[in-house]
Amino acid sequence: MIPRELEPESMETAEDVEQYDAMDHSEVNNRFVADFLAAHGPCRGGEILDVGTGTALIPITLARADSYARVVGFDLAPAMIERAEQNVANAGLADRIRCIQADAKSVGAALDGIPFEAIVSNSIIHHIADPRPVLASMVDRISPGGTLMVRDLARPDTEAEVDALVERYAAGESPQARALFHASLRAALTLDEIQAIVAETGLPASCVQRTSDRHWTLIWRRPA
């Protein structure tokens, strides 16, 4: 088993953000949104929080898929939020998506304990050394009947598997993008590791499942 090697918590430079935003995330984002709506059902008009929103591609995809979706995009990096706001404006969705620069480790403090219809997060956990308080804070902010959906990469067992995944899914990307994907796979948690962490928050470990050759997904509904 290869050891976990953390990435930086956020992308700080405009060049990093440009590189990230230029990558083709459409297939992953479309699947994420489809899986969320299948678990949650139609949006109800309450706010949905996207933790680690990056350049707001998932909020935009969700808002286009469901006209009742209202989303708060939440990210640590000011450069990400700046690009996110540009993307939202260019999509004509500024009336339903707002972006906030804040730390995922302080979800409750940054948003004054506001409950959300749902909380989603894609590929933020592998940036965080100890995701327990982040996940616990997300759970606390879900309204009755609301949904928590968190998806991230799953760390492979061997370097050969890392290299194979990079070749399979990033062969057409730039060398910088390939290196970023490689580092993200090395920084990710294994399925066993994230299930143990989720169990410590009081949720069933079984709410986390392997959902692709490179992802795990946590889906939990708060009882109404």
UniProtKB/TrEMBL annotation:
One of its GO terms (molecular function) is demethylrebeccamycin--D-glucose O-methyltransferase activity. Keywords: Methyltransferase, Transferase. It is an enzyme of class 2 (transferase). GO terms for biological process: methylation. The keyword Transferase applies. Residues 45-166 form the Methyltransferase domain. Its EC number is 2.1.1.164. It comes from the Bacteria. This is Demethylrebeccamycin-D-glucose O-methyltransferase.
